[in-house]
Every structure is written in C-alpha cells, then in structure tokens.
Amino acid sequence: MSTPPSPAHGRLARRLGLRDAIAIGLAAMIGAGVFAVWAPAAQAAGSWLLAGLAIAALVAVANAGSTAQLAVRHPEAGGAYRYGRERLGPWPGFLAGWGFVIGKTASCAAMAITAAAYLVPPAWQKPVAVAAVVVLVGVNVLGVTRTARVASVIVSAVLAVLVVVVAAGVAATAGGGWGAGDAAVVVAPRGVPDAPAAAIAGAYGVLQAAALIFFAFAGYARIATLGEEVREPTRTIPRAIGVAFAIVLVVYAAVGTAALGSLGPAALASSTAPLVDVAGVAGWLWAEPVVRVAAGVAALGSLLALIAGVGRTSLAMARDGELPRPLATVHPRFGVPHVAEITVGAAVVVLVLVADLRGAIGFSSFGVLLYYLVANASALTQPAGERLVPRWLSWFGAIGCVVLVVTLPLPSIVGGVAVFVVGAVIRLIASAVRRRRGARPGSATQ
C-alpha cells in the first residue's frame, strides 16, 4: 500500500476541472512530435505509414483504457508508478516510475532545446532554452490551474496552425496528386529467396513506425499522473482521457494523411521539417515561418506538461521513500510539489547546458512502452466491478507494448535497458543501506 503523506507534506489540492485536464493532456500529446515524427516513421514504413499510425492508435486506445480504469480506482499522483506499486509490487512500480522520471527529464531538455531551435538563431538557443525551463517551472509552481490555462492557450494556437497544414496538404494533393515519392523499396531477406520480402520487411517497418508514432501519442498519461488534483476524479479522469485522445487521434490522422499525400513517402522520409515542407509544396510560402513558430510553441506546451508530470511522479516516489523525502513537500499555498518541480527544472537546465539531447533520447520510447506495460498489467489485476474496459483490451495493450518495444531501433533498446539497470542497481544499494541502518517498518526496502 502507498505511504500516507505526512502533515508537512500533505495532499495535492483538487483544482482541475474537465476542461483543465483535457488541456494538459492535449498539450502533452500535441507537442513537437506531431511536427517531427513523420520523417522517421516514413523511413521505417514508407507508403505504409498510415498503417503504422493505425497500429499505434490501437495500442494507444488499449493503454488509454487501462490507464483511465486504474485512475478511477487510484486517483493519486504518480500514474503507472502508483498503479504498479499498489497492484503488482514495489519493483514493477519502481521501474515504471524510474523510467518515467529519468526518460522524461531528458525529454524535457530535448523539448527546451527543440523549442529554442525553432524560435531563435543558434547563438541564442541555449540561453532561450534555459529561460523557457525557468519560466515554465515558475508557471507550474504557481499552481496547477495556471498550468492548465497556459496549456489551453498553447494548444489552441498550435491546433489552429495544424489546420492550416492540413489545408495546405489537401491543396497540394488535389493540385498535383500524390507526392514524388514511390512506395518504399524493400530488399528480400538473404537466404529466403522465395519469401514474400515486402510482407516480411514491410511488416517490421510498419511496426517500427508504430512504435515511433506511439511515443508521440503517449501524453494522455499526464492526466492520470495529475489524478490527485482532479475534481470528481472517477468521472473527470476517464472523460478527460477519452476526449483528449479522440481529438489527438483525429489531428494525427489528418496531419499524417496530409503529409504523406502531399510529399509522398520518399520525400517525407528525407524531410527535416515535414510540416514546413507541406506548406512549401502547396506554394503557401507565407505559412512556412508560421509552422516553424508553431512547432516551437508546441514543444513549449509539451515541456510544460512534462515538468508537471515528472514532478508528480517524483512526489509519489518520494512519499514511498524511492526518491529523497524532501521531494514529497507540497507548497502550503499553491498546493503543488514545488520542491520536486524546482528540482526537475534544475536538472533540465543542467542537461540543456551540457548536452544537446535531441538525438540521444531514444531510450524514452523504451521507457514509455515499459511504463504502459506496467499500467496494462496492473489493469489486468482489477476485478470485474472495477473494470471500465474489457480485459482483452488490457491484454492487447500489454502485448502491443512488448511487440513495439522489440521493434525499436537497437540504440533505443540498449539505452533503455541501461537506464533500467542503473535504476535497479541504485535501488538495491539504497535498500541495503537502509537495512543496515535499521529501516523503519513499512519503508520501501523490497
């Protein structure tokens, strides 16, 4: 069972309504991913890109259902960390939480650098990235309702620009048909001369594309991570997850279709700024700078939601002694885990200053899939009276996570395994130290 917060730490305040929760979920999902995921996904799947999108959506639907079901039963901070710990045991919960905190802290740095890269010249990018982190941590520390308001403004602006991108894609496709790219060229596997090469290699490529696109979908968990701050959680959380996911599914389907239709698979796969190129191929040159700015703003929205999510997961882990106890402190006025959020912000600033992580955080995809594997496994333990979705859907989500994780690029898998091994070693060492010091009964030493 979870460790009750001490009076000094306290509970988070329930201040989020349905629209607030939807806004935060949308900000997490409609981030830089919608502007960037199409090129690597097209490299993997070619003309079958939309099949990869469909598979990612199906797995995401299953995971969203399991997450919503668990959030109703456990409306506390921490998301899959809390669900795994309560229903599967300390180790599964810890691994889900560790992967989320470490992976998403790196993602925060990547989002800050990405936003700055879109918005300012190279010489200004690191100072602007640091400033963005400081400002958005400040927004989060001032209260979760302010987080929701800023997220709502960002999402509205980005959605308006994505409508322009889709319109440009439709215009380009109608004017010149499908783009110049041909269907992906697939090489037959060696040693299997009569094998249907397109079906074999193509299937793997589609699954790899699905894994990449799934990573961009995955922000709906942010709503569950903030579950302790949602009013009427048993009603609000499932509705917020469902509405946010439905909106994002429509947006991704429309944008993916527009990009593939206007550029073609070959040009899309080689693009460094796919949605900017969609505007260009339509002849809408005025829209290109608008799309670039929107990509930067979307990255800031994702960063805002990420800081909030990592802060709440750190809070939950600190309550159980899995992270330093001071991270569980809740601000007496604003009702937020300000120590955790400021600590996350400081770590992100250091990462921004010492490294450019845009190309080095593939392990985040690995961590996200393991996070949802724990969520689905936790949902499978719930009795019929607690179920909002059929049991087979949770099974489908769990199997889908395993299938997608093994199709990730090898560096992502290696990086992900390394992160979890480091976390396990740290936990074992910390547990041994606590046992030697005579840990209090009920502390997290398992």
Please provide a written account of the structure.
There is one protein chain. With 446 residues, this protein is mostly helical. It has a single domain (23-180, 199-436), classed as Amino acid/polyamine transporter I, CATH 1.20.1740. It has 17 helices and no strands. Helix 5 packs antiparallel against helix 6 (90-119), helix 9 packs across helix 15 and helix 11 (233-270) packs across helix 12. The radius of gyration is 21 Å and the shape is globular. The chain starts with 17 loop residues before the first helix and ends in a 10-residue tail after the last helix.
Topology at a glance:
Blueprint (H helix, E strand, L loop, with lengths): L17 H12 L3 H4 L1 H8 L3 H25 L6 H8 L2 H30 L5 H17 L2 H33 L20 H21 L3 H5 L7 H38 L3 H8 L5 H33 L18 H17 L8 H18 L10 H16 L3 H27 L10
Helix pairs in contact: 1-8, 1-11, 1-13, 3-9, 3-11, 4-9, 4-11, 4-15, 4-16, 5-6, 5-15, 6-7, 6-13, 6-14, 6-15, 6-17, 7-8, 7-13, 7-14, 8-11, 8-12, 8-13, 9-15, 9-16, 11-12, 12-13, 13-14, 15-16, 15-17
Largest sheet: none
Q: Work out the radius of gyration.
A: 21 Å
- Our count of helices gives 17
What is the H/E order?
Answer: HHHHHHHHHHHHHHHHH
Distance between the ends: 13 Å
CATH class: Mainly Alpha
Based on the coordinates given, report the CATH architecture: Up-down Bundle
Shape estimate: globular
Helix content: over 70%
Identify the CATH homologous superfamily.
Amino acid/polyamine transporter I
Low confidence ranges: 1-8, 177-201
What multimeric state do the chains show?
single chain
Mean of the pLDDT scores?
Answer: 85
Beta-strand percentage range: under 5%
Q: Class by helix and strand content?
A: mainly alpha
- How many DSSP E strands? 0
